[in-house]
Amino acid sequence: MDYLQIKKVKSLKGDIKISGAKNASLPLIAMTILAKNSVHIKNLPNVADIKTLLKLLSNLGAECSFHDDRVIVDTSSLAQTKAKYDIVKTMRASILVLGPILTRFGHCEVSLPGGCAIGQRPVDLHLKALEQMGATIYIKSGYIEATAPNGLKGCDIIFDKITVTGTANIVMAASLAKGITTLTNAAREPEVVQLCEVLNSSGVKIEGIGTAVLTIHGTDSKLLDIDEFSVIADRIEAGTYLCAGAISKDELTLTNVDAGHLGAVLSKLEEMGSSFSITEDTITIHPSKIIKPVKITTQEYPAFPTDMQAQFLALATQAEGTSIIEEKLFENRFMHVSELQRMGADISLNGSVATIKGETPLSGTDVMATDLRASSALVLAGLVADGMTNVHRIYHLDRGYDALEKKLGAVGADIKRLQE
Ligand code: UD1
What we know:
By secondary structure, the protein is an alpha/beta fold. Helix content is 31%, strand content 25%. It is built from 14 helices and 24 strands. The strands form six sheets. Strands 22-23-1-24 form a four-stranded mixed beta sheet, covered by helices on one side. The protein has a four-stranded mixed beta sheet with strand order 2-15-17-16. Strand 4 (63-67) and strand 5 (70-74) form a beta hairpin. Helix 5 (124-132) packs parallel to helix 6, helix 6 (164-175) packs parallel to helix 7 and helix 8 (235-248) runs parallel beside helix 10. The site of uridine-diphosphate-N-acetylglucosamine has 19 residues, from helix 1, helix 5 and helix 6.
């Protein structure tokens, strides 16, 4: 198994090119199930989750060719409609194929994703909405079995909670449905916006893009003609490298990035003392020599993202004062805390609130990655910890960070991928 060995950083300097967003790519790849043509997607990140979803589509009969950051997906040969446990268990986002397969073929089976490290993560809202659209759904032997032999019908859906993949799933299901679907309390994440924009330019009229109420005019089973497009930049990868600049107190420039998607993250870094120079597709962080403490509550976009909570927690260990971070979305998303404590961090946890006493010198040791974003928090801590930090179980990190050690290595970090 691979692990990362990180030595305390002397200084970071230079440019980091941000990859395409994993969380945008996944629904966009699932969306190819709605197409009648081969779909060309550019600027995909080279991460394990993308390969997993392409493998799932290939297993279902689609043809996928992935080179560099591009893929061509042809789903005209897709013949199977059962997403099996062995793939779904490795990536919960596999649930994204449910809406498109069901709306196109009238039936679909997807293994129940089950729990995951950061919490229970149910998919009840996806299923309830599909039932409202006319699907019959049973849970049998660990599988969701959904049928809609006469196709799905547009209707009014109100999500009890904002769900990102739930919104993507229902928007895709509604795209080939008969009639109009209105989805209220929809997610407004940039990744959902891009999915809606691509669908909108491929023959599905969608109103309210970027708002909490989406109106989707279904095509009544007419497959879509989807032009080549490029995936938006990964705002979470970008946020992670901004935290690398902030924690090492070194200037870094990110390229191929969209600052418009990073409002809450930039504003919290500003509160902590950093400033920025921003162009259309670059952000340069000018970190301050003193990191100020911060109060953060994670919430749905455009508020502060839960996917940046762990990285800011690592940064807060170096602040001059006490920071408070509240996690509102996932009940168990603090597993990085015990690993950071092993490095010397002074953090106390009370339910969903972490209190971090800053100015604690961290010392390098062996730590274990527990989920995707927790892994990058340990890497950030490793940059400033005395001595050497070994981050184990980085298969979590590889799910979502494209060439992290190469990107950080190229700007001066002493970081190596080694084998146990
Ligand atoms: C997506 C992101 C993930 C991010 C999360 C929140 C992808 C592939 N993943 O995950 O990186 O951390 O959004 O921004 O885009 N919920 C229910 N019932 C449901 C669905 C969700 O109760 O049917 C709850 C969840 O348990 C959670 C909250 O709603 O508490 C938000 O979850 P959701 O937005 O669905 O997260 P994902 O789409 O899985």
